[in-house]
Specification:
There is one protein chain. By secondary structure, this protein is α+β, with helices and mostly antiparallel strands. About 25% of the residues lie in helices and about 40% in strands. It is built from 4 helices and 10 strands. Strands 1, 2, 3, 4, 5, 6, 7, 8, 9 and 10 form a 10-stranded mixed β-sheet that branches. Strand 7 and strand 8 form a beta hairpin. The two termini are about 20 Å apart.
Length: about 170
């Protein structure tokens, strides 16, 4: 893998591309304690200010942890596409009706009693540190390239990794 650090518009575009492509992440809260708390979360939106949005229950452990300490880590992983993203930053809990209406979809009925559910909140995550790994090809092609490199002893470029200066 080659290192390709990105900044400005390129970093913003890569962040949005990977988050939207992968969708689900593991959200870690309560980072100062061991074990920290980790839950799977589905991304609802990436806005123009690099904020990543989720819906969450007001009474959830991760919401309580965010109120106590806003530092969280998101880990996005899509092994089938060989795409990975590690984000660290701060989260805030939002209850603004317009935001909840914008983010809410019928699939969220599995967890909430509609957009009027008093337990419904939004989490707004703003990353301060981001690192990505992204192959140029799908998993099969990447594995073929790695196999070719192993057999021939030649170094093959299977993708890129780097910091996203956001």
């Amino acid at each position: 893998m080659s290192t390709k650090n990105l900044s400005h518009e390129a970093a913003d575009a890569k962040l949005k591309e990977l988050v939207e492509s992968i969708d689900f992440c593991m959200m870690a809260t309560n980072l100062s304690n061991k074990p920290f708390h980790v839950v799977p979360m589905s991304t609802k939106k990436v806005d123009g200010e690099e904020a990543i949005w989720f819906l969450s229950g007001k009474d959830s452990d991760h919401n309580k942890n965010i109120v106590a300490d806003s530092d969280i880590q998101l880990i996005y992983s899509m092994p089938s596409k060989m795409e990975f993203l590690n984000l660290y930053g701060q989260a805030t809990i939002k209850t603004d009706r317009l935001i909840l209406e914008e983010l809410y979809e019928s699939s969220d009925d599995s967890w909430f009693d509609g957009v009027d559910d008093p337990n419904l909140t939004a989490i707004c995550f703003k990353p301060s540190h981001a690192y990505y790994w992204d192959t140029k090809d799908n998993q099969f092609v990447s594995l073929l390239k790695m196999g070719y490199g192993a057999v021939t002893g030649q170094k093959v470029d299977v993708g890129e990794e780097g910091e996203l200066d956001i």
